[in-house]
Amino acid sequence: MSSDAEETRPDAGSRRLMVLLAMAMFVLVVDTSLMNVSISAVVRDLDTTASGVQSAIALEALVSAAFILINSKVGDLIGRKRAYVLGLSAYAIGALAMTLAQSLTAIVIFWAIVGGLGASLLLPAMQSLIHGNFAGSAQKKAYALVGAAAAIAAAIGPLLGGFVTTYLSWRVGFGLEVVIILVVLSQIHLVRDVAYTGTRKIDAVGAVLSVIGMGGVVLGILVWQEGGAYVRLLMLVGVVALVLLARWLVGRKRAGKLTLLDPDLFRHPNFTAGISGQALQQITLGGAMIALPLFLQMSLEYNALEAGLSLAPLSLTMFAAALVAGKRAGDRRPASIIRAGFLLASIGIAVIVPFVPRVDSGWYLVLPLAVTGCGLGLLVSQLNNYTLAPVEEERVSEAAGVNSAAGSFGLSFGLAMAGGLMLAALSFGFTQMTQNSSVIPAAEQQQIAAALERDAEIMSDTQLAEQITGQPPEVEAEIVAINSDARNRSLQVALLVPLLAALAGLANSFRMLRLPDVKPSSSLEGMDFG
Q: Membrane among the record's keywords (predicted)?
């Protein structure tokens, strides 16, 4: 037994590799937090719009979701180590672009698209490399360290991003990401590649349909919120592609041919219920993480640090609840903990909605944000294991990829849908209140209505006041008042997306309770950090 222990005890090189893998995961998770709390600073420095930045955030999640299944296979074919290097390099390119960007276009191309592709290569490769570079207790320690890095990044990301953005610059934050990635890549010789012995064929049709399906639905929403054309066509193409993908997978499976993913995975009721819960949890998180930062930075006009501090109750309680529930769940059924999670998230967001037009300080949000964070933390602690528990050990890696794709798609959908509804509600509310105003002249009412038809935009009262100088004082005051009311109502509408998703998750949890519990296999260790 002592010899076995010595074989699995990590040496100095292995411990250093664990730390480097954890550093890579930290960057991956903290990246989006930095963007969320920096929205107003990015808008000001690049002279762009909050909805444009929000669209970039949603697009990055969408690209990661749409390509994670096929890029997992690409990593198998080109080598997991090479995929890991390419993924990190793409992420570094995205972060470097944020450091140097002079326009939103650069952010969309390099941070959202190139960085999203990097994430979809990096996550599956990292999982395989940990599995192949460590064994026994060392492997468990590696998974635990990487998972802890992700959890810590999620918890302190808003605070760290807010501090750097306020006292230095948001560009410095992304520059630090580049430095960390370069440090990790400089030690790539420590990574031993993991050979792939499976088939080298690819289900190209299934891969294309999955990308078009997920991409069409979310891109349709993003185009809608930006006032673009062919919205219905894009969403219809996406839905049709997803239906065709399901039929294609089933047909290929019956014919005994290679499929992008095994449709028999969805025969497990626990798996389908878990996948649904995973997507709904991420829609809840995505919708909240668009509406709440915009409320703090546009309505309350907080800087990045103040916004990060205000969001800290959400991120810190999420981290704490996940940690406690993961260690002390005891004999409690996972489904009952999931139900409690969705219930707390629903209550927390439901309390925030009426607060939006009535509070003038983030302090009023501390308790509901803490309740929401506790709920999301409970979900994080249980959903992955619940979803993967019924899957046979040899198919767990494939199932984990589907689980990650569902979560990333849910996140991008929540971001896009909340943003789209927010701008639609803003346009409608501003137009109606302007037309009903007795202070604004009729000619200017028509100009405002025409401008909103072309481009509705969330902005603070200070930003708007700077744009309407030269008007009579009473007209300026009226337009600013209308902007404040319409903006807050639109943010309330946006918060309905995470609220409805949490309620749908709560309903789904009752289905989970009716299903028998399945004990997870030992191979689930570390399957949840991506």
A: yes
Give the model confidence (pLDDT) of 421-435 as tens digits. Answer: 888 888 788 788 888
Place of tokens 């890029």: 71
| pLDDT greater at residue 295 or residue 146 | 295
Q: Return the DSSP state at 156.
A: H
281, 383 in Cβ contact below 8 A? yes
Specify the amino acid at residue 165.
T
Q: Does residue 276 contact residue 498 with C-beta atoms inside 8 Å? A: no
pLDDT of residue 262: 82
Structure tokens at 309: 């501090």
What span, in angstroms and rounded, lies between the C-alpha atoms of 271 and 265?
7
**Degrees (nearest 5) of the Cα angle 57, 59, 60?**
65
Tens of pLDDT, residue by residue over 338-387, are 999 999 999 999 999 999 888 888 899 999 999 999 999 898 888 877 88
Can you tell me the distance from the alpha carbon of 459 to that of 457, in angstroms, rounded to the nearest whole number? 6
- Contacts of residue 113, defined as CB under 8 A and 6 or more positions apart, other chains included, come to 59, 60, 63
Identify the CA nearest to 436 among candidates 379, 477, 478: 478
| Non-local CB neighbours of 450 within 8 Å, separated by 6+ positions | none
What gap in Å lies between CA 314 and CA 296, rounded to an integer?
Answer: 14
Listed in sequence order, the residues at least 6 apart from 468 whose beta carbon sits closer than 8 Å to its beta carbon are 475, 476, 479, 480
Amino acid at 222: L
| Burial category of 67 from C-beta neighbours within 10 Å (exposed 0-12, middle 13-18, buried 19 and up) | buried
pLDDT for the residue 8: 47
Do 409 and 279 contact (CB within 8 A), yes or no?
yes
Show contacts of 86-90: CB within 8 Å, 24+ apart. Answer: 86/118, 86/121, 87/118, 87/119, 87/120, 87/121, 87/122, 87/123, 87/125, 88/24, 88/118, 88/122, 88/181, 88/184, 88/185, 89/118, 89/181, 89/185, 90/114, 90/115, 90/117, 90/118, 90/121, 90/122
Give the tens place of pLDDT for each residue, 159-178: 888 888 888 888 998 999 99
The tens digit of pLDDT for each residue in 217-271 reads 888 877 776 666 677 888 899 899 999 998 998 888 888 888 888 888 888 898 8
Assess contact for 252 and 479: CB atoms under 8 A. Answer: no
Give the number of other CB atoms < 10 A from CB of residue 132: 17
Q: Which two three-digit tokens encode residue 212?
A: 């078009």
Q: Is residue 376 within 8 Å of 151, Cβ to Cβ?
A: no
Cα–Cα dist 355/528, whole Å: 34
Alpha-helical runs (H) found in 134-195: 136-167, 170-186
